Amino acid sequence: MELIQETPDLSAYLVADEVIDHHHPRVRQTAARLAETVADSYGYAQAAFEYVRDAIPHSQDAGDPRVTWRASDVLDLRTGICHAKAHALAALLRAEDIPTALCYQRLTHDDGDGHAVHGLVAVRFNGAWHRQDPRGNKPGVDARFSLAGERLAWVPDPALDEVDYPTLYAAPHPAVLGALRAAQDRPHLWRTLPVAL
């Protein structure tokens, strides 16, 4: 699949905003700590990915009812669904000047009843975008950081009306962000997440 930048301006994928708040002290501290352990930007990107994937539990997997959406809150409260974790990873990567986009899939719910939009990121290395899924591994899910072929949590099945959306967004999609911000708790969010973009 060819990934398509929402905007041709690469600097848009480095911007800090209310959601991807990489100017926040919590994000800066976490980025600095991760940067101390690696030799280059590739090593940093992998370390940031593994930190968000492994050290911040997916709230559904952990049974945590809290809803986070701002990157600094995800890092501070150490919880979030896929979208929140993607925001946190985007902030950590942009904090170290690595262009990072938000991207999405339409997937079937685990129980097979309906669909939901799933969030992930794409990083820019060596003149190309590479999608990464920091949602967190569990039985049946083994996402890995890779620039040599995707190692995502899921591969959409067109027979189930699942979709890989090719657009690379500089900011969270408004439908996703609106659902996150309006949710009283995770069960409420599960009922209101968009089913398509």
Automatic annotation (TrEMBL):
It comes from the Bacteria. Residues 29-134 form the Transglutaminase-like domain. InterPro entries: Papain-like_cys_pep_sf (IPR038765), Transglutaminase-like (IPR002931). This is Transglutaminase. It comes from Streptomyces akebiae.
